[in-house]
Write a structure and sequence with these properties.
Blueprint lengths: L6 H12 L4 E4 L1 H7 L8 E4 L3 H7 L4 E6 L4 E6 L2 E7 L1 E3 L11 E3 L3 H6 L8 E4 L3 E4 L3 H7 L1 E2 L5 H7 L2 H13 L2 E2 L1 H9 L9 H12 L4 H7 L1 H7 L19 H10 L19 H4 L31 H5 L9 H11 L4 H12 L9 H26 L17 H4 L8 H4 L1 H10 L13 H5 L6 H15 L7 H11 L1
Parallel strand pairs: 2-5, 10-11
Antiparallel strand pairs: 1-2, 1-8, 3-4, 4-5, 6-7, 8-9
Length: 486
């Protein structure tokens, strides 16, 4: 077997070999090569010590990124390559980092410390593929298996649990039985992993093609690292196909929390909202057609029946139970950047806004959340209104039984599924959705006698009038509208 390596990688390997050392590309890059994928980055393992490496690569730029742990970064053509000495890890007192690393000249000892078999292979043109733990076979079978004793691997470094789940989601691989059991047994150790590292793995997991399966099968493990997940009905997740990782995160919080899934004898609460589905509500649920206002007033209660799924999801902000508020608390706990938190809160805050089917509703979305946010909202609405059982459509009971799975969100109507097309067509027309789009500005309003805050208020009224189709976005028409309003 021969893998195609770049000239820079070959230069590093051959330079080390010329000085009597062995060197191989190792880890995820070998896995990706064998899967026919272009690796994101290339790591090299070698028998040379950091001091020996510095002498060998004295003529090129190097960065001492982790010399204490045996890593020297060699920079060629602007691309960094991490070259690390064979090592054996010492004790892991904090279940994350070894207290010391011991350099070794034995490749097998270095490979033995790695997390999963598919990541414990190395390759060089001279030595070919070195696979001591059956990584290639596991790769062909689509299996994530820990190197050696799984429980020991996860006790050493709890982050490996999240990495394993992430690989399962992104590669579409099943987790080997003993490895999965060890993940569940050692899940409590995830409390030792920093929020920042959890966030990195979480985002990658959500972007995986098999994210839904992993979320469903390992929800109890993930909820240790992200406590907010305990309240999310993973068994009720619809298909995530077509959603970005960020939208998948928002989808989780768009589902009503488990604490509100209280099965009543003889009935299961189902969603009957017309805001998302575009259909007619059942007569007994007619009151749900009133959309929640932008000031987040709660919808009228439906008595004596339990709250509907949709009602729960859009519960008043004053009660602290909105999808947006739950997402915000979780995202901040994970140290998400402020822009991501703000965008997610905006999307979830307007996810349940009324959609009349006209352009006016889309203009309001564009005003509140922008083009990308509006697209996300429409994708989420379409997904939440799906009735495909094979996608795990949203059931309403606090269990995953066949009976509960039959209780689905109302079927998505063709008119609703076309809203994304409607949005794109509207965007092409460059609609007026912000103050800067208005055909008049503050100076024009001031010339009519408005002063101070009244100018901004007048502009805001004009903007909403234009978006609502009450007046054309033309200077004369806008001024006339203001005069008529008075």
């Amino acid at each position: 077997m021969e893998l195609t390596l770049s000239s820079d990688v070959l230069y590093i390997i051959e330079s080390l070999e010329k000085h009597g050392h062995r060197a191989d590309v190792v880890g995820g890059c070998v896995r990706d090569f064998l899967m026919g994928k272009a690796p994101f980055d290339i790591d090299i393992t070698t028998s040379a010590t950091p001091e020996q490496m510095k002498e060998i690569f004295a003529s090129v730029r190097t960065v001492e990124t982790g010399v204490k742990h045996g890593t020297l970064t060699v920079v060629l053509g602007g691309t960094p390559y991490e070259v690390t000495t064979y090592r054996v890890d010492g004790e892991y007192a904090d279940h994350r980092h070894p207290e010391e690393v011991i350099f070794t000249e034995t490749l097998s000892e270095d490979l033995a410390r790695r997390d999963f078999t598919v990541n414990a292979m190395c390759y060089s043109p001279k030595n070919g593929l070195t696979d001591l733990y059956g990584g290639r076979e596991d790769l062909e079978k689509g299996i994530i298996r820990a190197v050696g004793e799984a429980e020991k691997r996860f006790t050493e470094d709890a982050l490996r649990i999240l990495r394993g789940l992430r690989f399962s989601a992104t590669l579409g691989f099943e987790i080997e039985e003993k490895t999965a059991a060890a993940m569940r047994k050692c899940a409590y150790l995830l409390s030792f992993v920093s929020a920042e590292r959890v966030l990195v793995e979480w985002r990658k997991l959500l972007g995986g093609k098999d994210a839904r399966r992993v979320l469903t099968e390992f929800s109890e493990v993930l909820s240790v690292a992200i406590p907010a997940l305990k309240e999310i009905p993973m068994h009720a997740l619809p298909s995530m196909e077509g959603l970005t990782a960020e939208e998948r995160m928002l989808l989780l919080f768009a589902l009503p929390p488990l604490s509100h899934h209280e099965p009543q004898s003889g009935s299961i609460s189902c969603v009957q909202s017309t805001h998302i589905t575009g259909g007619e509500a059942d007569p007994c649920h007619e009151s749900q057609r009133d959309s929640i206002s932008r000031t987040a007033h709660p919808p009228r209660p439906l008595s004596p029946e339990p709250p509907s799924e949709r009602e729960v999801a859009r519960k008043s902000v004053t009660e602290g139970e909105t999808a947006a508020s739950r997402f915000e608390a979780c995202a901040l706990a994970l140290r998400s950047d402020r822009a991501t938190v703000r965008r997610g809160v905006q999307i979830l805050s307007h996810l349940y806004d009324e959609d009349t089917g006209a352009d006016e509703s889309l203009c309001l979305l564009l005003h509140y959340v922008g083009e990308d946010g509006a697209r996300s909202i429409l994708r989420l609405r379409a997904l939440l209104s799906s009735n495909e059982p094979q996608s795990g459509a949203l059931s309403c009971a606090h269990n995953a039984s066949a009976e509960a799975d039959s209780c689905l969100l109302r079927t998505a109507r063709p008119s609703h599924l076309c809203r994304l097309d409607d949005l794109e067509a509207l965007i092409e027309k460059h609609p007026c959705t912000s103050l800067s789009d208005l055909a008049v500005d503050g100076q024009a309003i001031a010339s009519l006698g408005y002063k101070g805050k009244a100018i901004g208020e007048a502009l805001s009224r004009l903007l909403f009038a234009v978006m609502g189709g009450c007046v054309k976005n033309e200077r004369e028409a806008l001024i006339a509208y203001l005069c008529t309003e008075e």
